[in-house]
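Severity: low
Component: inverse-folding endpoint
Summary: output formatting inconsistent between runs
Steps to reproduce: submit the following structure tokens with default settings.
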């Protein structure tokens, strides 16, 4: 059962990578499923996946729940990074003096 799940996930991941290739014709449907979304969240790349799908114009091909999940992680990461950058500004200013 685990091997089948891993094989399905690998096939889905490869299909997604092929769908995001800028040199291939655009497809209306991106083969995303819950295990891939869950894996992206676990690996910390949900935000990157969201931004890639948004940029490629394929985000709308996802189910609403998958779009929302990826979007939440993208904006949480963005908010955290902006706070870190804001906190680093004084340190960088002092270091440049």
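Observed output (run 2 of 3):
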């Amino acid at each position: 059962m685990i091997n089948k799940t891993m094989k399905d996930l690998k096939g889905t991941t490869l299909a997604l990578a092929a769908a995001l290739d800028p040199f291939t014709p655009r497809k209306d449907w991106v083969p995303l499923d819950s295990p891939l979304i869950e894996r992206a969240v676990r690996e910390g790349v949900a935000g990157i996946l969201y931004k890639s799908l948004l940029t490629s114009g394929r985000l709308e091909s996802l189910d609403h729940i998958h779009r929302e999940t990826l979007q939440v992680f993208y904006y949480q990461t963005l908010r955290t990074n902006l706070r870190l950058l804001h906190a680093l500004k004084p340190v960088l200013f002092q270091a440049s003096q």
